[in-house]
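Model it.
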Amino acid sequence: MLLIMEHSMTATNPTIDITIPREISEILDKTARRANKSVSEIALELIEWAIEEREDIYFSKIADAIEQSGPEWVKDSDAVWG
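Modeled.
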């Protein structure tokens, strides 16, 4: 179950409260201790990484579609370069 509630406080970044399974909480705790960071820092790093991964997948699909459609050729270079 995932519960997200967004809060915004004056002069701070927005915060979210999420409910996570105990197993994930334990993994975050262990990872934070090993990295000498807070659980929030580790969670933010993982969220940022996941967003970047999704962006990479999205743009990869676009690149694949362009590559499959083949190159676009202009018959007369003067039409492009004047």
